[in-house]
Amino acid sequence: MTQHFPALLIIVPLLSALAVSAMGWIDRRWCFPLAVASLGGALAVSVSLLVQVMAAGPIVYQMAGWSPPIGITYVIDYLNAPVLVVVLAAAFLNLIGAKVRIEAEFEEKLGAYLALYILFLSGMVGIVATGDAFNLYVLLEIASLTGYALIGLGKERAPLSSLNYLFMGTIGASFYLLGIGYIYIATGTLNMADISNMMPQLMGSGTLFLALIICMTGLFVKMALFPMHGWLPNAYSNAPSASAGLIAPLTTKVMVYAMVRVGLTIFTPEFTFSRAILSETIVWLAVGAIVAGSLLALMQRRLSRMLTYVIVAEVGYMVGGFWLGNKTGITGATLHIINDAAMTLTLFMAVSTITWKLGSDKFEDLKGLFGKMPFTMIGFVLAALAVIGIPPTCGFFSKWYLITGGIEAGQWGFVVALLFSSLVNAVLFFRIFEIAFFEPFAEGHGHHGHGPAMSEAPASMVAPLIIAALSLIVLGLYTGDIVTKLIQLAIPAGIA
Amino acid sequence: MRLLALIAVVLTGGLIIFHTGDLPDFGDPNSPASTHLSPYYLEHGEGDTHAPNIVSAVLADYRGFDTMFETTVVFAAGLACFFLLRRKTEPGDKPRMYRHLPTGVTLRIKSGGTFPEEDSTEFRRMDSHFVPHQIIIKNTCRLVIPFIQVFALYVVAHGHYSPGGGFQGGVLLAAAIILYAISHDLRRSIHRFSEKVAALSGSLGVFIYAGAGALCLLLGANFLNYEALGPLLGVDAVMARSHGILIIEIGVALAVMAVIVWIYYNLSSAGKHDEGL
Amino acid sequence: MTDLLPLIAAKYNYWIYTILMMIGLYAMIAKNNLVKKIIGMNIFQTAIILFYVSIAYKKGATLPIIMGDGHGGGHGAIQAADYINPLPHCLMLTAIVVSVATLGVALALAIKIYRQYGTLEEDDINHQIRMQAGQ
Question: Among residues A78, A100, B223, B254, which one has the fewest Cβ atoms lying within 10 Å of its Cβ?
Fold first, then answer.
């Protein structure tokens, strides 16, 4: 059975999503246990795949028994094995953490919500694991459709934000589809490995260059790279917190992974980085993303909106790091996919816990939080330190690789933007620490010795948050292993 | 804003058109797209799967994994429309119209009054949008609907030999039910094909598809490799692929029919399942 | 200019799909009414579908349904150039279904927005949001 694990990665969530949806009509008590069991099972399968890949090298699984390029293949190699583990772990932790919230907000439609949750996750897993360019489009659309629905039933402005997200997402996915069409016209095949085999003969092809631009434009729209980031703050901050905790860590990072996959595997690195004008333009776009994201985050008065602009800046890190074109930069970008998913998960789970107890996430309502919700704030502080980039959290190491890569490539604008954004992140988060710690709760006027009474959120919400926060430190300590045993092996040899 | 959009659109279109010089001519049989991979499908498709319709063979067998996700997309869309729109309404929310059948008098009962029984033989509930002279529409549709359904089953079953297959047949089946809902009444259609049946059938359809693939996995072959079903069905490997294609087409047809009817129920009544179009 | 006309004549399918795509994209960005935006999205996706289907065409070829001369034996060699390319058609079945699904979800969201704001014009909705935020 272990040789079928790449297929099980998809089958288990898919079948359980169908079962959960059916149970929603028959007996609602089975929905949540089924969902948790299936995500746990998929997580175990992905960990086993990671161990297999580290021991024996990439795994190729042929769906329907047809060899490539006739059939569809799933390829688990050094690049996507760790990303798979992170994606599944993030969804699993978020589901457990959001249990109380989901059962309170979506009582009647519990089956439908959990089925959409699991389908979103299986779309993301498929995007990471697939080895076929068109299959990636279909899975992208599953993830997008379920994402629109998960966001649509939120706060006041949720339907409008979701519709705007739908329009931008459709433009992005359709551009990606168009890019694949151009690749198909030029090569005649859809299998990623097959296309990369044909690339050396087609180096000067204008069609393929246009295909690269169109594919990348589509993916940039979906990952909210500046200036196409307009949909992200509204969509993520107006979503229900349980959905935001799932979609925010995963969507943009998996799109960055797709960009790395398209750039490195489909269009081989020799082709992708061969036109300097493209790489330069994109690095400057990334610089714009970092600066704009950081500045706009400073202007926000709500915690969740501030975090969405921090995400915009983080996307700029990863895109800029990849398009630097050298090994350190690509290592930094890939490492940052893993680290940023963990950081964003922790941050959004913390915000969800805070809004569950307080009802709002405006800055002025966050006073005295350190006393009232100490465990939540420990998680929040760890994640904030990771975003700022302080060792030994993982954020420091990926920033180190990105800055080194920028210096090596001579892109000083990128290096300056990274340092600027670290400073701005420090200002942002220390401002919150100050409000939450030093300003006493208004009712404690006469009690100087007593802090506010502790009223922490339920354990099922706080425990996954603490696990996610501790993982930031664990990822940071194991960075050396991750880089040397996984990421460096994933980068093709042709890059300096 | 409009000028900016116009400039952006013209620039993008110009960039794309500028590059059409490199692309193969329209209808060129020697383009890379037509010579690299697709001759294998055309030459070996029938021999491998006993299905003369190569598009069905590619869709359901060679690239069957994609089609499974496509069916899942349809199911997810049904779930999404249900999740976003569905709301239960109390009977006293809006005024209702009833027709007293023996006399032909129409009553408008405001919210707060007593409504006639659900299965009353004297009073029939009418939609707020009154449509006169329904007799021609109703009876024509009643005559046509069975033929549409039979044709839909033909399209599903003959996916191997003529253009057709699961998606097309499923949409036709759904169209028959929607025709009934439009010509008669949404409530009567829901009474015959309720939302719960639609939701469960949708899940069942996708489950047939994914389950058939998982069955192949349990029997030892790769996922969706129908040759593993050969010993189970008692036929050789190639016929097993043909039967596998038929099984999943049935699953697809069931799922597509159920989901499109479900989406129609939710969209046409804005989630209330009260009065339709 | 004289070699532009043979160029257009040989590759007119690409010109058509590009113009359609740009019409759809313009409608999605510039129109005010939400339903017109949704229709623009549909046109945009349909243009890409037409592009793929036009790749599949071969001059003088017929549908990719292998007609048998009898039952079983004696098919003869199947020439690939006699049949159009089946792969883009298969891919576009998927794309059509995906576009219909997206249309369904977009309409559901539009119904929710209408229920909430009473209008489908985007500037009216933004005006109402600003009024609510100002209170």
Answer: A100
